[in-house]
Amino acid sequence: MSWDKHGRIHDLIFWPEREEVDKYVYTPGLHGLELAKALVEGRILGMKCSDGSVYVPPKTFCSDFGEGSLVEIKGPWRLQHYTIVYEDLYGNRLEKPIVVGVIKPDDAVNGMIHIVNVDPGKVYVGMELKPVFKPKDQRKGTIADIQYFEPA
Fold this sequence. Notes:
Shape: globular
Radius of gyration: 17 Å
Helix content: under 10%
Low-confidence stretches: 19-24
Largest sheet: 5 strands, antiparallel
Oligomer: single chain
Order of helices and strands: EEHEEEEEEEE
Number of strands: 10
Mean pLDDT: 85
Strand order of the largest sheet: 8-7-6-9-10
């Protein structure tokens, strides 16, 4: 069980192998829409604020409540934190462990969580990475269009 922001108890619901957007109406906002279009093209966008801060993925507003401007993020990307996953959602041992990390471009304030295609024995914080996109005909305008990040 979990509690919502009003203190009411509710059950958590999981949809393994499905996206939440299949169950909820989600509006990504204008920046999110532009990010979706860019992902289909094989590009990643961030938002540059008037103070020079860059946020990836783009936020709706900057910390000064300004709108900022969309910029293409080319990297380099670096692994900030990571964990190694050995079991699936049901507790079954995976054939091959999965590395999941926080990946941040050098010039950004924040980063994104994604899969890192690297041998778990060779992964390290600070590793330079690059995004690998799915084939263009398989992209749908979601963060899953980035298949994974791999060592640059």
